[in-house]
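To assess whether ligand presence alters the predicted conformation, the chain was also submitted together with zinc ion. Input:
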Amino acid sequence: MSESFPRKLTDREMDLLSWVLPEDRPGYAAARMLTRSWSVAARGRRGDGNYILAPEGTVVDVVSPLPQVLAYGVVETGTISTSVTVRERMDVQLEFEIVDNPAFGTAAEPRRWSYSTWLPSSVCPQCGRFPRDVRMSTEGNRLVVLAICMYDRRLWVFDDRSGVNHPVPVTNFYSELMSQTGVRDPRVALRPELLFEQMSAHADDDLARAFVSYNTRHAKIPADDPVLAPESRRPLFGRLFSLFYH
Ligand SMILES: [Zn+2]
């Protein structure tokens, strides 16, 4: 099907984007406003359902690395599972993906869930169980919470200033954790699934330090008010953790 650009968002696109970009959270509201004022300027590089919003007349950039994910949600109807992803704004463009997939029989009832609604101490939006939450503070004494759901094997970090829950890819985070705790044994260090399978093996302070280190490379929390790392108190922990798996 040929498509001409620029075009307006369809009603369905507008509904889904508005849902994952709630207006009561400043970090999402800023992107939501762009969905009102910009047009769909081009397809993205990731196939069906991937588009780029931009002001009219913009030549869009489809060459730079994809920005990080800002918002993510899933609509399950029982037979179709629709994922909605919005990426961080890059200059004057905002990229989103709305992708329909066959559902794998997990949702008996239609439902939708999104990370955009999560608040610290509440249940995981996807599975309804409590994630582990690791509380951190910034220099400006704001709250930052790393949430880890062992059931869905997902991580995200809540920023109290923007209200945004940023998804955190497990592989990169886990390699920071291994480097922070000094684990080099490949049977442990190369198996990120152990983060979830052996969650109690990791102390909050180690998880927090790993996040702070991760954040210096893949900024989720802006550096103008840096997240504070707990002081290192347990230098032997990494070696002990490694021994545990021998
Ligand atoms: Zn979950």
